[in-house]
Design goal:
The chain is built from 14 helices and 7 strands. The chain has 376 residues and is α/β, with parallel strands linked by helices. It has a 5-stranded parallel beta sheet with strand order 4-5-6-1-7, covered by helices on one side. A two-stranded antiparallel sheet has the order 2-3. About 3% of the residues have low confidence. The structure holds zinc ion. Zinc ion (ZN) binds next to α3.
Length: 376
């Protein structure tokens, strides 16, 4: 546990979102409902904790607005023992009504027992709904009234990848704050400065994280991530070079490499006051899907590198700098037009992962399709 809670000052790469929030708080807008939208791993959850700290802090800094880090509310938040700040994560694939309100057999609704009471530790009660896009219709409808007119001591912070995935009735009741990916060069520089990552590796990590600062940070701070990514990238190169009977063997190797992406395998830890833990099977299944999705993202990176090399030549700028000569050999196997087809085929498979397709069938099918498109 960090000694101090997260503050706005610590948020990297989200200057405009943080500026909007600080301005809102300085203007007295420290209650009501917020909706943060932006890609996964770009800093929404981190910023939600910083906002929670700032609004519950007993002696906030004013210019610029931020948590003091030293009052009782701040200290309890940093130790994970401030019951007035709650994180609600999906139970399985959905965020359900019984997570908010008591239902028969599930008397643990988080709002039921907290909403009527003004806070006694900090200035606010804060409820962070980490995946507002997974609210069931029932759960969403049950929140409408409190989102529209919450008690003055309550702040809701809803997070979602896109506004389009949130019910319009919820959307209209929240102040929306947009989060975006960082420019790759800026993110690489930040990784090199803050995480002491060598410059060429920082550029690779920034590109692999697609500009998402949270993802880049977890890549940089994991001792094993870079090696695991390397195994997956090699499996991707083999898959893109495979032909004949080797194709299915390469698909199997990619599945194994995906399972080896251990740094993606665990759910983020939930603070003490969070919703009941989702059941183990679901968690494992979601972790598997996240790993398969990331493995296909890595294959796509190899294919885009190969396209760049086949279009521009051996000096082209690529992500996998350390594998330049090997990818150059892979690049020779297709014409640029065929690489574009291959990238499309990988993107189709990637979407199917999110749609719960069977990973074995999906990767076998991708391998066969890729081999066929290379022989045209
Ligand atoms: Zn404080």
């Amino acid at each position: 546990m960090p000694e101090a809670p997260l503050t706005f000052a610590q948020i990297a790469g989200q200057e405009s979102a943080v500026a909007v929030l600080r301005r809102t708080l300085a203007d007295g807008g420290d209650s009501g409902s917020f909706l943060f939208t932006g890609p996964q791993g770009c800093g929404k959850t981190t910023t939600a904790w910083a906002l929670a700290a700032a609004v519950s802090c007993l002696a906030p800094r004013i210019d610029p607005y931020d948590a003091c880090t030293e009052c009782d509310a701040c200290k309890r938040l940093s130790r994970g023992v401030n019951p007035e700040v709650s994180l609600v994560q999906p139970a399985g694939d959905q965020t359900q009504i019984w997570q908010f309100w008591d239902r028969e057999g599930k008397p643990r609704g988080i709002l039921q027992h907290a909403l009527p009471y003004s806070p006694s530790i900090g200035r606010k009660r804060v409820f962070i709904v980490e995946r507002a896009d997974t609210l069931t219709e029932g759960a969403a409808n049950s929140l409408l009234k409190v989102l529209e007119e919450p008690p003055h001591y309550v702040v809701f912070i809803l997070l979602a990848p896109h506004a389009g995935r949130v019910l319009p009735t919820i959307l209209s009741r929240c102040r929306m704050v947009r989060f975006g990916a960082m420019p790759l060069a800026g993110l690489a520089e930040w990784l090199a400065d803050r995480h002491a990552v060598a410059a060429d590796r920082a550029a690779t990590l920034a590109a692999l994280a697609q500009g998402c600062v949270g993802t880049a940070q977890s890549l940089a701070s994991s001792k094993t991530a870079y090696g695991e990514i390397g195994v997956c990238t090699d499996a991707g190169m083999a898959l893109l070079s495979a032909s004949g009977l080797g194709v299915l063997r390469c698909a199997e190797a990619l599945r194994q490499a995906a399972k080896g992406l251990k740094f993606l395998g665990d759910e983020p830890p939930a603070p003490a006051a969070a919703a009941p833990a989702p059941d183990a099977d679901n968690t494992k299944e979601r972790a598997g899907r996240r790993q398969m999705g990331a493995a296909l993202d890595l294959v796509a990176v190899v294919a885009r590198d190969a396209l760049a090399l086949s279009l521009v030549g051996p000096g082209a700028s690529i992500v996998n700098e350390e594998r330049r000569s090997a990818i150059l050999a892979v690049a020779d196997r297709r014409q640029p037009r065929e690489w574009i087809t291959a990238i499309d085929q990988i993107a189709v498979a990637r979407r199917r992962v999110d749609m719960n397709a069977n990973p074995a069938i999906l990767t076998d099918a991708l391998a066969v399709t890729l081999a066929a498109s290379a022989q045209r």
